[in-house]
Amino acid sequence: MRTIQFREAVCEAMSEEMRRDESIYLIGEEVAEYNGAYKASKGMLDEFGPKRVIDAPIAELGFAGIAVGSAMNGNRPIVEFMTFNFSLVGIDQIINNAAKMRQMSGGQFNIPIVFRGPTASAGQLGATHSQAFENWFANTPGLKVVVPSTPYDAKGLLKAAIRDNDPVIFMESEQMYGDKGEVPEGEYTIPLGVADIKREGKDVTIVSFGKIIKEALKAAEELEKEGISCEVIDLRTVRPMDQETILNSVKKTNRLVILEEAWPFGSVSSEITYLVQDQAFDYLDAPIQRITTADTPAPYSPVLLEQWLPNAQDVVKAVKKTLYR
């Protein structure tokens, strides 16, 4: 099987869907002439032209609103934010229009739209460019939230998101665009709301998603050397969440560690913790452990940033804590 970059998987997904359906178009800052800020739309302007690959001004509220309106009129827009930090400028359109229009119109309007771009930290970008927004958007009824961690998942999930008749938040990472992975050349999609067991194990369950799951997999490899078997679950879709896969795993391992790159208060890990204590409490042999970023704005200093972000050693410590070692 061929190996391609994450950005190429994203580009293939969009291009294949645009060839299939002429109502799909891409709009965002630098998506056309510059081939995308992270080159995730390379070559698409040449193939589809300026009416379907549209360079927008630096006005997220404006082009998000245009896209929502066009979705109400039969189009299927893909909106790229250069970073989801900039989506805050257009969040009124996402939450008060895209997410709510179907319910407020009594089902008269579907909003088949994808908002995509990078989330969370990407090195020394400072406090206002390093925020994770998965839990923000997942808190909104009417939105689906997808956070892939591999090129294979990115392509399959993005194609499914584009075909979905509801608004989807599709969150990537600046630090994953160059990641390489196996992606088949043939047609495939991955259904939204289905988690993936990236590594099977029997002693403890680790749940994570997005680029930070790499730290969970590193930790699992290190712990295996000590005879500790970790099952690593990649949520892939934060909302709707695959509760069954999480619960079945916890019932098998009797221990749970949750890793995410977000602040602790009101986080995705908070929701998973509630789910497991509510529906699988009797199976737990130890308190649930969760690992998040520090509860502060992201620092700029690389020394402080290293302390702020979770890492594999944090996961190792949490796993051993659940095992009373």
Strand content: 15-25%
Structural class: alpha/beta
Main sheet specs: 7 strands, mixed
Number of strands: 14
Shape: globular
What count of helical segments does DSSP give?
12
Overall helicity: 25-40%
Task: Give the N-terminus to C-terminus distance in angstroms.
Answer: 41 Å
What integer is the average pLDDT? 97
The parts where pLDDT drops under 50 for at least 5 residues are none
What order do the helices and strands come in, and which of them pair?
Blueprint: E1 3-5, H1 6-20, E2 24-28, H2 44-48, E3 53-55, H3 60-72, E4 76-80, H4 91-98, H5 101-104, E5 114-118, H6 134-138, E6 144-146, H7 151-163, E7 168-172, E8 180-182, E9 196-199, E10 204-208, H8 213-224, E11 230-234, E12 237-239, H9 243-253, E13 256-259, H10 268-279, E14 289-291, H11 302-308, H12 312-322
Parallel strand pairs: 2-3, 2-4, 4-5, 5-7, 6-7, 10-11, 10-13, 13-14
Antiparallel strand pairs: 1-8, 6-12, 9-11
Helix pairs in contact: 1-7, 3-4, 8-12, 9-10
Question: What can you tell me about this protein's structure?
Answer:
The structure is a single chain. The protein is an alpha/beta fold and 325 residues long. It has twelve helices and 14 strands. The strands form three sheets. Strands 3-2-4-5-7-6-12 form a seven-stranded mixed β-sheet, with helices on both faces. Strand 2, helix 2 and strand 3 form a beta-alpha-beta unit. Helix 3 runs parallel beside helix 4 and helix 9 packs across helix 10. The longest helix is centred in the first third of the chain and has 15 residues.
